Fold this sequence. Notes:
16 helices, seven-stranded antiparallel β-sheet, single chain, FAD/NAD(P)-binding domain, globular, alpha/beta
Amino acid sequence: MPLLSITPEDFAxxxxxxxxxxGGTAGLALAARLSExxxxxxxVLEAGPNGLGDDTIDExxxxxxxxxxxxxxxxxxxxxxxxxxxxxxxKVLGGSSALNLMTWNRASKEDYDAWEKLGNKGWGWDSLLPxxxxxxxxxxSKEEYQDDHQVYSGGEAxxxxxxxxxxxxxxxxxxxxxxxxxxxxxxxxxxxxxxxGSNVGVWKNLVSVHPESNTRSYAASAYLEPNLSRQNLxxxxxxxxxxxxxxxxxxxxxxxxxxxxHSSNSFAVLASREIILSTGSIQSPQLLELSGxxxxxxxxxxxxxxxxxxPNVGENLQDHxxxxxxxxxxxxxxxxxxxxxxxxxxxxxxxxxxxxxKVERIVSKIERLEKYPPEQxxxxxxxxxxxxxxxxxxxLLEPGNWNSNFxxxxxxxxxxxxxxxxxxxxxxxxxxHIPGSRLSAKDRPTIxxxxxxxxxxxxxxxxxxxxxxMTQSMRFTDKIFKTAPLSGVVLSKGTPSSSVNSDDELRExxxxxxxxDWHPVGTCAMGGGGGIHSGVVNDRLQVYGVERLRVxxxxxxxxxxxxxxxxxxxxxxxxxxxxxxxxxxxxxxxxGPN
Length: 594
């Protein structure tokens, strides 16, 4: 039976070894790796449709495929002047890897080492690097092209045999080149090995695009499509998972399957080895709560039986905050045709972005924070120690107007350029939870009820630090636009306008213009040394208090990283596949011969 033509009835009747809930970035990578073993049967339930072959996904210039969007949004954010933000997430085979901007990079070594310092064994840089390389199929540029266009890969740190095609852009606009040279004139170092453990400096963006077909390389096309003929891998699309089936076995809560709906009909499917949640930072905590795992108060208000009490489910939400500065350019500046972005990426420490006295003021506020556990607090403070070279803020240039709040006067001749300031290590913390206050168990929330997403942007003393860093980042962007050669083509400021001068005025502008870079993490975090008191899963990604249940997606990240997420999410899935196989061998050996 062809992999993608299975009926829900046939799927529910299968005897699966592994059942993966969510056919997104991590889920499909995990399914492909587990099904390499012909002796196991793997099933995947995906709520969205099959988008393979859809030009709105495949063509890099059409990367806003909003017809495949879950259409989530945040609660009104007090720190953003009461505004709610849209949080697009992919509802399609491949998940958000089918919608993202295809940027391919890694965080710094220290970011992953921080996970291990929290007690999560095997999650440091050295342990993760082989899994980063395993997913990557990098197409090397010719040496002269690298020098001419300042495109570098990082040498032996890059994988060349993996399923995700990684390449450089085939075109660079005049604006991109001007910005890159301007950053160099500001003494920002060229980072020729940005994939080798430090992303500080500037380099040209690498993208997950197949260089020959010029199509997006994503989870469905790279991990799933080449394996459609496997007889032990079954994927059911448009199947909405309602809950994980968790029963008592020998006095222990054990995950045995899942309930799902398909075309308004309800089904139950079982798996003998493991159930694996790969539904992302929004829906993995939502499904855990709907299945009876979470904060007792939240579950009881929703009319859901408490099976495992864990107040960490849905907490610890961290996201990358973004503001966008826009300037009008000389109309003679060459434009770039649609395609994969070739923009320069620049990650800078706070000590380069602003004056030393302002750095010290921010650090003094960090030192007074009391909210976080001591182990986390030591890491968060350490990221701002003098002499530390980490990318506290990303600066990213794009031709055109990327600020949705800025509406310029209609004109066919005017051209704009935008610089995005993206805060990498947020102190703001939020949560994602199911709605409560139901009148009866019959009216309890379902997966169709949108979760309550409250990122807590710029809230409290912690958010005040984020607001201060973002404000100083805006000052540095002004400096970029006023430095040659970019300054030679800038005609005027678009937003914030030239009348926004004082810190108070700029802070107000930041509050009213901050958006998201759509990188939520942490809502089912690894607990490390604190166990269930600090997180939701252990360092094997097994859910505390439940046998045979794991979470494999961005939600397991205990601390945010300085970098775009997709490469790290694939790496999480690659490492998880190895751990699952290893744990299965150990269980078999412990049972002994039959």
